[in-house]
Amino acid sequence: MTKTRLRAVLQWALGVWFVLVILAAFFYAPSASGFKGESARIVFFHVPQAWVAVLAFCVNLVASLRYLRTRNPIDDARAAAAARLGLVFSLLATVTGSLFANVMWNSFWNWDPREVSIVILLLIYAAYFALREAIPDEERRGSLSAAYAVLAFVTMPFLVFVVPRIYWSLHPDTIIGATGQLKLQMESRMLQVLLGSLVGFTGLFSWLYTLEVRLARARLARRGREEV
Amino acid sequence: MRASTLLSESLAVLGKELTAELRSRVALNAVGLFGLTTLIAVAYQIGPYRIQEQDRPHLLAALLWVILFFAATSGLSRVFVKEEDAHTAKTLRLAARPLAVFAGKFLFNLILLAALYAFIVPLYCALMGYAVQGVASLALLLACGAVALSATSTMVAAIISRASGSTTLFAILSVPLVLPLLVMLIQGTRAAAGSTTIAAVLPALQGVVSLGGATLVISVYLFPVVWHD
Fold this sequence. Notes:
Order of helices and strands of chain A: HHHHHH
Distance between the termini of chain B: 30 Å
Largest sheet of chain A: none
Oligomer: heterodimer
Radius of gyration of chain B: 18 Å
Order of helices and strands of chain B: HHHHHHHHH
Strand content of chain B: under 5%
Mean pLDDT of chain A: 85
Shape of chain B: globular
Strand content of chain A: under 5%
Structural class of chain B: mainly alpha
Structural class of chain A: mainly alpha
Number of helices of chain A: 6
């Protein structure tokens, strides 16, 4: 099978997977107790979005470290692509979390530590692009934004794990509990849908990321030809 | 000729920074006046009596760190920008190894922060009627907070000095990085104000020390890349 054909098959498979996840989220998974109405079903979309935002941050870190070692422009493009997608997914996680907060607590924003954490993550991504915009020289842009990305990554464990545990939080229990133990107290069908959605969103991220990197590669190749 | 060590080079950079600062007093004036102006505005508008008793621990701790952080921001960003503006960065690159430059600038920022804290914190406590039970805990928290803030600010200052629009970029880049630190410092200050034991501030202190330590180690690793680029 050619690469193009394989890509087309995977794209269709991803589309079908998402249709199944959406149907399962509304018709297969049971209602969760302790939540208003059907609001808990947002977990099947909100959690994977937050997961992808963090995953994008990790990919951004790896690409940034590679760029600092190799100085290959494609690694800088990879880091920027991951950050761009991370920005989009953290925005989506903020919006879906806010919708859930409005249903549960009658307010779109409650200054909950987890809400603040995701907003800080958004600010870091925004700052990363502000820095890139401010540096006209490509090589310097690559190295300085890579350095900033690595520095910013240090704060992520504190945002995700430390700050929400210092302050009292309205946010429902996360998979890793406050005492550090693994908590998977979810009805098995709900867990299946959540895991399915996590796989789907990770696939969506991989597809969009690959598209961005291919586009960047094509741009670099065209510029290389123009310079020759 | 005696070979220079990392320590002697770092101290030489620190000495140069202090001499230049004592000559011009730009950063000292900026930080001191910014802190004083903000403190007066806060004390005049809010003062010790306009906050409800139950809100005092939260609000007074948060206001103290807002004043300290934004006052510090006005001076900490200058350490590398001034080298680029005065066209002395190239000479400094030749004169000292990157780690010595980072250490010297980091120590200078630390001294600047210590001076700001020594000036603003007692004034704040007096003007806002902020009675701190755990003075030793607060001092420890301020010291650890200064190290963490200085490490982040020195690294961000190095990054922005190589980009255009430096002054505005400093706030944009440093605020998201410093926010988790500020959250922990505010939490720790609140605990220190209400208790004489160090144990009360320990959770926040652990967070501040870990974040500060991690930032410092990463900065030491990254600085040569930024400096020599």
